[in-house]
UniProtKB/TrEMBL annotation:
<keyword id="KW-0106">Calcium</keyword>
<keyword id="KW-1003">Cell membrane</keyword>
<dbReference type="InterPro" id="IPR010734">
    <property type="entry name" value="Copine_C"/>
</dbReference>
<dbReference type="Pfam" id="PF07002">
    <property type="entry name" value="Copine"/>
</dbReference>
<keyword id="KW-0597">Phosphoprotein</keyword>
<feature type="domain" description="C2">
    <location>
        <begin position="120"/>
        <end position="244"/>
    </location>
</feature>
<keyword id="KW-0539">Nucleus</keyword>
<keyword id="KW-0963">Cytoplasm</keyword>
<dbReference type="InterPro" id="IPR036465">
    <property type="entry name" value="vWFA_dom_sf"/>
</dbReference>
<dbReference type="GO" id="GO:0005886">
    <property type="term" value="C:plasma membrane"/>
</dbReference>
<keyword id="KW-0677">Repeat</keyword>
<dbReference type="GO" id="GO:0005544">
    <property type="term" value="F:calcium-dependent phospholipid binding"/>
</dbReference>
<dbReference type="GO" id="GO:0005737">
    <property type="term" value="C:cytoplasm"/>
</dbReference>
<dbReference type="InterPro" id="IPR045052">
    <property type="entry name" value="Copine"/>
</dbReference>
<feature type="domain" description="C2">
    <location>
        <begin position="1"/>
        <end position="113"/>
    </location>
</feature>
<comment type="similarity">
    <text>Belongs to the copine family.</text>
</comment>
<dbReference type="Pfam" id="PF00168">
    <property type="entry name" value="C2"/>
</dbReference>
Length: 589
């Protein structure tokens, strides 16, 4: 029987939260979890809002709603005062449990927050608004302002913008919030995208409110002014900048000669289409998965139980757990399932010379493993033959995969490469690795680095572009962020008891994996599990395929367990030669 599925966006706001900070207000975020197999697994998070007891989160949460299933959700609110991903060291402000069906049927659900023991938190309410996602258009804007009012006594204003849409009940719902531009009355904000549905529900004439505010660290932000517009008028900026007066109604009422509190300038505007993962897999996009495993001496003697490479009685260790967690998910999206698997940092037979890039199966003419299980088998075999050594070099394997990506970029059809690096410690060739990543950022390629063990991985954060685009030693910046680093032990409890076969439906869901194209621009978000890790990249232009599916074939998703098989069959019948399999490329030593 076909399942009734609907994509849902959830908007979350809170009112009257507990204040856990001394001298300021709480810095809340909301985390959404789903109950599965008797335990709770994280799906997604909102952004953190500084110094607010009444946060209105602009980042929406996403779910696939199955009418015939009971999908139990938990929304946890935390006061976050550090940079760690784990919420265990943050102040808990309250939570709310419900089913997705309750939210969808209510459309707008407002409930008091509870403690973990089920008792009232004492203060705080949560409001959740559900909306079906029907429109896949996105609006791309580049916005600036001129001559804004000065709100700070000893400096200029620190302005940010908020975009609101008018709801059916007349209330205003936040759709997007820009970053803060410090000490500037003529700011230019970073270009951004916002879904058409979030901003106007697909109605080009629906009124949009743009609010300009001066940011204050203590949360007591100062209103500068606002503008009213709709998408039809915003479209004027497709050909020339659109200027909107930023008006403070209170000032206008009190001051006879008041004109405005500045001008908001829409420098550019474009309506684009956000294609789904299914659209592009059906169109022939091929994903290729490569693995690199760290065999340096810092891992410890594999014969010792203290070693990260020590195989427990079940034949596993932390490296293999991480490999299964990511690999068993990605393999379902690699059609040929032939994965190049490499090791680095070891002395390898027969001469036991150092190698920073060797096939796990020691077959230099054919380094491919058929599926994740064969990678595991090759790992078991090579572990008995090599000797751990060092140092830890990442650049050889990154450059190796980049060669394949460069070759694929010249071929018709779209092919994307994902490199998974499993490592235990500090990179020795940091400068060379930075250069390799910057060069690879211009190719259809992304990198997941998983840190195993309990080492200090602060150095790895340099490669992750969360704090800004990575730069090569020469100062050249990456064209996009292609690296995601995650310490595996932070999330190891999420994997306890999970088997590889359950990762497929997790990966399939929108909340855990998003491969989005817009005008053949590519983002890839790789789910570690249940949304814990996303490999978030910025746009990269790929050549379009000559065939693309814009609607789902009837019955394609009648069974979540076999949809990929149907998908591959359909894609093959449409365009069997859309992209060359990975193993057809010549091998680079």
């Amino acid at each position: 029987m076909a399942q009734c599925v609907m994509k849902v966006e959830l908007s979350v706001s809170c009112q009257g939260l507990l204040n856990k900070d001394v001298g300021s207000k709480s810095d809340p975020l909301c985390v959404m979890l789903e109950e599965s197999g008797g335990s709770w697994h994280e799906l997604e998070r909102t952004e953190r809002i500084m110094n607010s007891l009444d946060p209105d989160f602009s980042q929406r949460l996403h779910m696939d709603y199955y009418f015939e299933q009971v999908q139990k959700l938990r929304f946890g609110i935390y006061d976050v005062d550090n940079k760690t991903y784990s919420l265990d060291d943050d102040d808990f402000l309250g939570q709310f449990d419900c089913t997705l069906g309750q939210i969808v049927s209510s459309k707008k659900l407002k409930k008091p927050l509870l403690l973990k023991n089920g008792k009232p938190a004492g203060k705080g309410q949560i409001t959740i608004v559900a909306e079906e996602k029907k429109d896949n258009r996105i609006l791309k804007l580049n916005v600036a302002a001129r001559n804004l009012d000065k709100k700070d006594l000893f400096g200029k204003s620190d302005p940010f913008l908020e975009f609101y849409r008018c709801s059916s009940d007349g209330s205003w719902q936040l759709a997007h919030r820009t970053e803060v531009v410090k000490n500037n009355l003529n700011p230019t904000w970073r270009p951004f995208s916002v879904p058409m549905q979030a901003l106007c529900q697909g109605d080009l004439e629906k009124e949009i409110k743009i609010v300009c505010t001066d940011y204050d660290n203590d949360g007591s932000h100062d209103f500068i002014g606002e503008s009213r517009v709709n998408v039809l008028r915003l479209q004027q900026a497709e050909t020339s900048p659109l200027e909107l007066e930023c008006v403070n109604a209170e000032k206008k009422r009190k001051k006879k000669h008041y004109k405005n509190s500045g001008v908001i300038i829409v420098k550019s505007f474009k309506i684009d289409v956000e294609y789904s993962f299914l659209d592009y897999i059906m169109g022939g996009t091929q994903m290729n998965f490569t693995v690199g495993i760290d065999f340096t001496i810092s891992n410890g003697d594999p014969r010792s139980p203290d070693s990260l490479h020590y195989l427990n009685p079940g034949g596993s260790n932390e490296y293999l757990s991480a490999l299964w967690s990511v690999g068993s998910v990605i393999q379902d999206y690699d059609t040929d399932k032939l994965f190049p698997a490499f090791g680095f940092g070891a002395l390898i037979p027969p001469k036991f010379e150092i190698s920073h890039e060797f096939p796990l199966n020691f077959n230099f003419s054919n380094p491919y493993c058929n599926g994740v299980q064969e990678i595991v088998n090759a790992y078991h075999s090579c572990l008995q033959q090599l000797r751990l050594y060092g140092p830890t070099y990442f650049s050889p394997i990154i450059n190796h995969v980049a060669q394949f990506a460069a070759a694929a970029a010249k071929l018709p059809g779209a092919t994307y490469f994902v490199l998974l690096i499993l490592t235990d410690g500090v990179i020795t060739d940091m400068d060379e690795t930075r250069l390799a990543i910057v060069n690879a950022s211009r190719l259809p390629m992304s990198i997941i680095i998983v840190g195993v063990g309990g080492a200090d991985f602060d150095g790895m954060e340099i490669l992750d572009g969360d704090g800004g685009l990575l730069k090569a030693p020469s100062g050249v910046a990456a064209s996009r962020d292609i690296v995601q680093f995650v310490p595996f032990r932070n999330f190891i409890n999420e994997f306890n008891g999970l088997q590889p076969d359950i990762f497929f439906p997790v990966f399939h869901s929108y909340k855990d994996v998003k491969v989005l194209f817009s005008s053949y621009q590519f983002w890839v978000h790789v789910g570690f599990t249940r949304g814990l890790v996303r490999l978030a990249t910025r746009p990269l232009t790929l050549k379009p395929t000559s065939h693309r599916i814009t609607s789902r074939p009837a019955g394609l998703l009648t069974n979540r367990g076999c949809w990929l098989k149907q998908l591959n069959q359909a894609a093959g019948s449409l365009h069997p030669s859309i992209a060359l399999p990975y193993h057809w490329f010549s091998y680079f030593n």
